[in-house]
Amino acid sequence: QVQLVESGGGLVQAGGSLRLSCAASGDTFSSYAMGWFRQGPGKEREFVAAISWSGDSTKYAVSVKGRFTISRDNAKNTVYLQMNSLKPEDTAAYYCAARPAPRGASYYYTNDYNYNRWGQGTQVTVSS
């Protein structure tokens, strides 16, 4: 089973940028579809972005589309979330998630119940 460790969170002013990283170990990273989720204070966990095992298919939540970019480097066993034009409502703990993905098809998954491996989270705080 893959283990996931997020990094890159922090405090940033509105309009700023951050890049989150999620490093995977313990299994063949390229056999996993990956996703990013977030949970703000007093809120339910919500989908942010997802990427297929190959990286050629991606999906974004409406709230972040055009501002966030998910990518992966299978040679480095890492998935990224580039976050631009950050808003105070982006404040949340951000989690990366993984699930085994079938080869030969570029699936991504947008529901948290599709994922069976989770990182510990990294906090992003956007000040106004």
Q: Compute the separation of the termini in Å.
A: 40 Å
Flag low-confidence runs. none
The portion of residues forming beta strands comes to: over 45%
Radius of gyration: 14 Å
Shape: globular
Residue-averaged pLDDT, rounded?
96
Give me the strand/helix succession.
EEEEEEEEEEE
Largest sheet: 7 strands, mixed
Question: How many distinct helices?
Answer: 0
Structural class: mainly beta
Number of strands: 11
Helix residue percentage: under 10%
State the main characteristics:
49% strand, 128 residues, 11 strands, 4-stranded antiparallel β-sheet
Provide structural commentary.
The strands form 2 sheets. Strands 2, 4, 5, 6, 9, 10 and 11 form a 7-stranded mixed sheet that branches. By secondary structure, this protein is mainly β. It has strands at residues 3-7, 10-13, 18-25, 32-39, 46-51, 58-60, 68-73, 78-83, 92-100, 117-118, 122-127. It is globular, with a radius of gyration of 14 Å. Strand 4 (32-39) and strand 5 form a beta hairpin. Helix content is 0%, strand content 49%.
